[in-house]
Amino acid sequence: MHLSRYLRSGGALLASGFASVEAMAGEQTKSMRYNMTEGVTEISQSVYSLHQIILWICVIIGVIVFGAMFYSIFKHRKSKGVKPATFHESVKVEIAWTIVPIIILIGMAVPATSTLRKMEDTSDAELTIKVTGYQWKWRYEYIDYNGRKLDIDYFSNLGTSQRQIHNKEKKSENYLLEVDRPLYIPTGKKVRFLITANDVIHSWWVPAFSVKKDAIPGFINETWTKVDEPGTYRGQCAELCGKDHGFMPVVVKALDTKDFDGWLNTEQEKVAEAKRIEYEAYGRDWPLEELMTEGKKIYDAKCAVCHMPNGEGIPGAFPALKDSAVALGDISKHIDVVVYGVQGTAMQAFKDQLNDIETAAVVTYERNAWGNDTGDAVQPRTVRDHKQQATK
Amino acid sequence: MSAVLDDHHDHHDHHHAPPKGIMRWLLTTNHKDIGAMYLWFSFIMFLTGGFMAMIIRAELFQPGLQIVDPNFFNQMTTVHGLVMVFGAVMPAFTGLANYMIPMMIGAPDMALPRMNNWSFWILPFAFLILISSLFTEGGGPNFGWTFYAPLSTTFGPDSTAMFVFSVHIMGISSIMGAINVVVTIMNMRAPGMSYMKMPLFCWTWLITAFLLIAVMPVLAGAVTMVLTDKYFGTSFFDAAGGGDPVMFQHIFWFFGHPEVYIMILPSFGVISAIIPAFSRKKLFGYASMVYATASIAGLSFLVWSHHMFTTGMPVFGELFFMYMTMMIAVPTGVKVFNWVATMWRGAMTFETPMLFAIGFVILFTIGGFSGLMLAIAPADFQYHDTYFVVAHFHYVLVSGAIFSIMAGAYYWLPKWTGHMYDETLGKWHFWLSTIFVNLLFFPMHFLGLAGMPRRIPDYATQFADVNMIVSIGGFCFGLTQLLFLYIVIKCIKGGEKAPAKPWEGAEGLEWSIPSPAPYHTFEVPPKVS
Amino acid sequence: MTELAQKNKKLVVKLLGCVAFMSLFVVALVPLYNTFCEITGLNGKGTGIVTDDRPSTIDTDRLVTVQFITQVNPGMPWSFEPLESQIKVYPGEIKKVMFRATNMGAKEITGQAIPSVTPGLTATYFKKTECFCFNQQVLKAGESVDMPVAFFVDPELPKEYGTITLSYSLFNVTQAIEQAELASK
Asked: What's the pLDDT at A328?
């Protein structure tokens, strides 16, 4: 029944699957590393060496124990005519193989303890960034940079197109590990992350920093890093957070201090510029076509993952917009849902993700696409007025 | 015609003969019938959960989304986990316990035969509910078998109530089964069968049963709180109402970690019966095996937070749980050393049960090593929620628990059916399983270390090659298990007649009765010297 | 046989007792966990109680940075911001900061702010003498209020902590209250 919808056509898949394996080999530009990354921070390097130490201790113990076992398997066979021995107890031996592992474990615990203490010491950070997990994107707010409050606050969405995910387009080099706006941090400075979530639990993970911390709604966690090498570092959400858990990567760009300060300035200029454009937008009447074109782009990027490109949603999980009460009903209610979200559902508040122009466009699109022909062209100033309706 | 059939009397059976047809199985209170039903049920669930694993591996065969959408993928990982844990592994051990414990301790049946019937027959309904939830609008549980709040509460699908209800039934079934095992072992032992003379399988199951009694109510509590949070407006796990989502994880893992040992301790018992039998030498360090099992069980209550290192615990908490978890390596090590010492200077033969037992020792130990690595909190920040963890627990549960169940099945099949299984096919089954289980799970270690998170339906292209190898291993491992089904059916239908004691070195009361074991055994308790 | 049945029955009752005990234990886990968190500061809790203690001394040898961050959860047309994003205080000094909440929606809404402190262990040293988060906030459409938090950092705060972050998550509890009222009727 429903299965048939999901299991499109297994047979066809296998055939096409094998065919595209070869095609894929050409696409692959990156090869996989078969061990944990050493990373680019002091912490990640000590985690790596800790990992190597334990791994080798395990390998050595394994070789000794299995070696003894295989020796026995080959030598002590009935087919070789051996008579079984009768011993079945030895207190001395048993005490020995209780004590020796304890000593080895203490040997492991000592470096582990000191690394752990270092990891949890978040004091004296120069830059503080708040990281908030949303279904299925990250939000970065620059809270404090050497005592200065920054007005930078943006969302970081998956950069890979749906067409690539659905195998309709060649997969890019950083398939699923690319975002529209990465997080920028300066090198050589201690950066502190305050981590929380807006809906369910997520986990912010950058392997190269050896940083993984859960983002928990209503609670705040913290962690830190200090990167010495400029570069781009990629990670993913590491806690099952619903449907698109596999599609919310983390990308961090570490810039040297000069470049970082430059980025900060342009970013702040951009914020001002965006505000100016928004202000101008209030002054004119936007035609339906323009709003629809703009709205489709936004809808496909932000809304289609749940409500589906055809507006039909996923029955029982995400509501349809096609022929829906919200999309055909009161405009003001519709704007309200988009701007502030719906509590207790996966519908999040888009007020911090979409400006008034974008909100107007996407609402217009939802009210006119897929046969929802209301003919409403929702204006940016209507959205502004809606947001301020009560405060006026 | 029926008169002729009714005339047929088993001469061991001085009571009534079992009723015929479906009613025999519905109403049976016989421990062998119930044991057999548990075992068959668990095998059906093993294939069901395995089928879901095939869907998962087919989707992950190559990057991109091909077969299922991400929401259904999440339902598959969730229900695969639940079915395998509560439907395959646990009932298989309960089945072995039902079948073997009375025969091992010289008891005529389980202590509470009618409750035994109930504890089995509610299970199929639990899984019927769980699996049918997949076909409801909005789908079945999609929040992982760990059902972390608020993903399972505020954000869960409408079918969550069905999930909760089915887990309740599974819990009740397990608790009843556990009570039965405890009462049987404590009260029904034959005269002379002191605790320290019991086969180790009885010991490990006794300890497992106490773990079940202790933690299944905790699971029931956790799902009940999820239910009331979702449907009745409480906020145990909802920050808005003063609750705490992290508390859910504490409660869940307080159940969850002992649960892991519930699935592995009976394995230790099976392996401790098989290795001495085929080494023709007594188990080395029986007493220390008992103490090691008990201390693993005790420690399992003190380590739960090692599943939660990344939730932001204070350093002292992380250190405490790290040290406690590392301590578990000590009794586990003792067990492995004892098995090797049992083999040492024995006179070994390598029939299928022994092959599976040796496979268990090696592969379970590999799972133990990765467990030790995961215990190291700073390194766990890198391993946590990656394929490294998936590799770890599948080594412990598939090549650990399930291998031991296979070993036990081959070991006791002659006793159950009265026929020897086909040794050549059994060996094929072992070698194919071992090769493919490693092809399936070993490369997952690399995926995890390279940074592939678990529970994702699609992945970056650099993980493609290894995922393809893993998927091929998975399909082949899955197919190989159909061979096991064939071997078992063949063995039931016929084959070389099995003597009362088909294994030269085997010890225990179960080998003192004829094969197949008569419907009623030890109605007069045997004397144990 | 009846003797055995008796023995079995006794044991079953005991084991059922264990099951009952564990069930009660789960129920008790919830308050136990909360108490444990409040005592130890686990999970950044321990800030839910107003304290009547007043600090005896002011430690002017060091300054502690206290940061304030806020977030508003879905379904809540409110803006909610601290008026100062961070201040420096001497341990033992009582400070008052304000948070401004504005209801931008068209309806009356009840909000509940949930505090969380990081690093978690500092929660027990971060003492509030007054906080809006002890009560729910009811704001009419368009209404704006400045809400106070008065606090001090315990001079006992270990030296290694130089920064404390106080976070408030604001949740819309209007529906929950209505539901509860309906249920009680």
From this structure: 87
